[in-house]
Amino acid sequence: MTVSEGAVPATERRRRRPLRRVLQVLAAVSVLYLVAVAFGLPPASPYDLVINLGSYTPEPELCAPADGKVRLVFLQHGLWRSNWSMWKLERALRRAGYQPCNGGYPSTRARIEQHASLLGEAIEAEVAARGGQAVELAFVGHSLGGLVVQQYLRRPDARQPKACVYLGTPHRGAMLCDLRKRWFVFRWVMGDQAALQLSPADPFHQQPLPMPCPAGTVVGDLGEGNPDIPGPDDGTVGVAEATFAGASDSITLPVGHTYLSIDDAAIRQVLYFLRHHTFAH
After folding, report:
1. Contact 275, 64 (CB under 8 A)
2. What is the mean pLDDT of the chain?
3. Cα(104)–Cα(118) distance, rounded to whole angstroms?
């Protein structure tokens, strides 16, 4: 039996058809994603959502006291990230009896001071929504989010919190910023606002660190994780950069910078500090 000359091209077309459809779908998804980013979607949102699909169930001793108090915990994500990056922690806090407030902010498009103003507005809105109920506040900031919390606490109208937990926050800046801030890609991806304030030489870091309440630092340590950073680090922030003199307590975990907000051990330490104002050593 002889195969006709046109049969081979037709078969080849049928083989290529599924691949073509996959490429068309990928192209459509990419266009939609870029349009969404152009209209304000944080670029890391899809990644943040995927890595936060897991869950953490707190032990009873880590839960908030069942005394009827309203305990608001404000979460602040890091640079280039989205509120999805704190979603697993948000759900763990809710299961533990807290009322987490996980609002996002345009981390690459404004300065830390402006982000702190947005946080202040969110706090007042949440307190007002409780209709005069007495509330307790706490903060958990990841990376740049910790600096936003600190800037809010410098404000004369800041509400007094019960506790603050900082996850991989470079309290006096991150030297990695100085190494990369002149790169076009760095400014294109991270912006030229809050990102540049991460430089240790920026005047932002000349301000005293506010310590109105017990404050704990969760520090990632991968050893020589990033060869550009002298000494141990979490891949982005040096161990020495992620804590500060006067902190109530500090704990070091073998966790990379990105995963400090989703690692089970880190979440457990956050809950422990909110309850006891110290970490479980």
Report:
1. yes
2. 91
3. 10
Only one residue has tokens 């073998």, namely: 254
Instruction: Compute CA distances 196 → 43, 168, 182, 203, whole Å.
Output: 18, 17, 10, 11
- Per-residue H/E/C for the chain: CCCCCCHHHHHHHHHHHHHHHHHHHHHHHHHHHHHHHHCCCCCCHHHHHHHCCCCCCCCHHHCCCCCCCEEEEEEECCCCCCHHHHHHHHHHHHHCCCEEECCCCCCCCCCHHHHHHHHHHHHHHHHHHCCCCCEEEEEEEECHHHHHHHHHHHCCCCCCCCEEEEECCCCCCCHHHHHHCCCHHHHHHHCCCCCHHHCCCCHHHHCCCCCCCCEEEEEECCCCCCCCCCCCECCCCECHHHCCCCCCEEEEECCCCHHHHCCHHHHHHHHHHHHHCCCCC
Taking the C-alpha atoms of residue 196 and residue 187, their distance in angstroms, rounded to an integer, is: 8
The pLDDT value recorded for residue 36 is: 47
For the chain, what are the domain ranges?
Answer: 1-39, 45-276
Check if CATH label 3.40.50.1820 holds for domain 45-276: yes
Q: What is the pLDDT of residues 152-195, one digit of tens each?
A: 999 999 999 999 999 999 999 999 999 998 888 889 989 999 99
Distance CA 226, CA 241 (A): 14
User: Residue 278 and residue 205: Cα distance in Å, rounded?
Assistant: 26
Structure tokens at 45: 């949102």
pLDDT given at position 5: 47
Given this model, what pLDDT does residue 27 score? 65
This prediction's pTM = 0.89
| pLDDT tens, residue by residue, 67-104 | 989 999 999 999 999 999 999 999 999 999 999 999 99
